[in-house]
Design brief:
The protein has helices at 4-8, 37-42, 44-56, 58-64, 68-88, 91-112, 128-145. By secondary structure, the protein is mainly alpha-helical.
């Protein structure tokens, strides 16, 4: 049962088990505090590897653009939010997990989508990539709010 104070202030979605999604892993088998132990700790890779890759691929980012660092930072957010979700199975955690994945996809889409496929003939404009990036950012913001 949820504490009355959490319901009154609208925090019931932060409570453990408030998400309708429950994956195939047995819950609370390794720890009474972590719902899906293996799913939670497998996200450590998303938190540990991006800083290492950012360091190792620094020359690549100097040559191709520093936007790639945004992808690595967003992957850290995916790891943190996914670990939170699988540890708590809260609705807030589920939404953070899904939204962070959406932002990674939209950031990558805005950086690597082929110019000749841009809408509105933006591929022929000097600032076409910038306009397409703003379109992707707008779509990500609207999807996040919805």
């Amino acid at each position: 049962d949820l504490p009355v104070t959490m319901v009154l202030i609208g925090w019931e979605n932060t409570y453990r088990g408030s998400s309708p999604v429950d994956w195939c892993e047995e819950n609370y088998t390794f720890s009474p505090h972590i719902a899906e132990f293996v799913n939670t700790f497998s996200n450590i890779l998303f938190i540990v590897f991006p800083p290492i890759v950012m360091y190792l691929h620094h020359p690549y980012s100097q040559h191709c653009g520093k936007g790639i660092h945004l992808i690595w930072l967003l992957l850290i957010m995916v790891g943190a939010s996914s670990a939170y979700f699988h540890a708590t199975l809260s609705l807030l955690g589920q939404l953070l997990d899904e939204v962070s994945i959406l932002w990674v996809i939209m950031a990558a889409f805005s950086m690597w989508f082929p110019r000749n496929m841009f809408p509105f003939r933006w591929g022929k404009l000097a600032d076409g990539r910038k306009k397409f990036s703003y379109l992707c950012l707008s779509a990500a913001i609207i999807s996040t709010v919805l």
